[in-house]
C-alpha cells in the first residue's frame, strides 16, 4: 500500500514537468549559441512570458546602422520587460565568416548591449527553428534587418521589412502592444 502512495506523487512530478515543458510556445523551443561566448541561450527559459523583438542582422549590410536604433529601443523599453534578440545571418551574403568580426561590428562599432547569437540560417529548409516558426506565423525575412515583434505568448503580432527603422511610429506602436500583452 505504501508503495502506491509513493508512486502517485512521483507520477505527478513527472507529468507536471512534462506539462511545464509543453507550455513553452513553439517559437521559443530550442536554444541558440550567444555571439562570441560559450553560453547557449535556452530561448524558453530566457524569453517565455516576455515581449520580444527578433531581428536578423548582417554586419556588412547597408542597414547595419539600424543597430544603433535597435540599441536605443532596447534601452528605452528594457525596464518595461522588452527583450531584443539579434540573429546574424549570412543568408544574404553580407555577414562575416568570422564571429570576432561580427562581434566587433555589433559591440564595438554600434555599442549593442542586447543579446546577439552566433550567425544562423534564417531562410528555407536550413533555417534555425526560431526563424522557421517566425516564417510560419508571419513570413520569412526577405532581407537583412527584418524585424518581428512577438507578444508575451510567443505569437508574432507584427513584422517589418528592412526599410522600417526601429524608431518608426508603426514599429514602436507594435512594440508597445507587445509590452501591454498578457502572458
TrEMBL record:
Gene3D superfamilies given in the database record: Glutaredoxin (3.40.30.10)
Domain Thioredoxin: 1-180
UniProt cross-references to SUPFAM superfamilies, sorted A to Z: Thioredoxin-like
Family note: Belongs to the glutathione peroxidase family.
One Gene Ontology molecular-function label: peroxidase activity
UniProt-recorded name of the protein: Glutathione peroxidase
Keyword Hydrolase applies: no
Superkingdom as given in the UniProt entry: Bacteria
Signal peptide region: 1-21
Swiss-Prot/TrEMBL keywords: Oxidoreductase, Peroxidase, Signal
CDD domains per UniProt: GSH_Peroxidase (cd00340)
Stored Pfam families: GSHPx
Listed InterPro entries: Glutathione_peroxidase, GPX_AS, Thioredoxin-like_sf, Thioredoxin_domain
Amino acid at each position: 500500500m505504501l508503495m502506491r502512495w509513493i508512486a502517485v506523487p512521483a507520477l505527478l512530478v513527472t507529468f507536471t514537468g512534462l506539462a511545464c515543458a509543453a507550455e513553452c510556445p513553439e517559437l521559443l523551443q530550442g536554444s541558440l549559441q550567444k555571439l562570441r561566448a560559450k553560453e547557449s541561450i535556452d530561448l524558453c527559459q530566457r524569453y517565455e512570458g516576455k515581449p520580444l523583438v527578433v531581428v536578423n542582422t548582417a554586419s556588412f549590410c547597408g542597414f547595419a546602422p539600424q543597430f544603433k536604433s535597435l540599441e536605443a529601443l532596447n534601452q528605452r523599453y528594457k525596464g518595461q520587460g522588452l527583450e531584443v534578440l539579434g540573429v546574424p545571418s549570412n543568408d544574404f551574403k553580407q555577414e562575416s565568416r568570422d564571429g570576432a568580426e561580427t562581434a566587433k561590428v555589433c559591440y564595438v562599432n554600434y555599442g549593442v548591449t542586447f543579446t546577439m547569437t552566433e550567425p544562423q540560417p534564417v531562410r528555407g529548409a536550413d533555417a534555425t527553428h526560431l526563424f522557421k516558426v517566425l516564417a510560419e506565423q508571419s513570413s520569412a525575412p526577405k532581407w537583412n534587418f527584418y524585424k518581428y515583434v512577438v507578444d508575451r505568448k510567443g505569437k508574432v503580432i507584427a513584422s517589418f521589412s528592412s526599410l522600417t527603422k526601429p524608431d518608426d511610429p508603426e514599429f514602436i506602436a507594435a512594440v508597445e502592444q507587445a509590452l501591454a500583452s498578457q502572458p
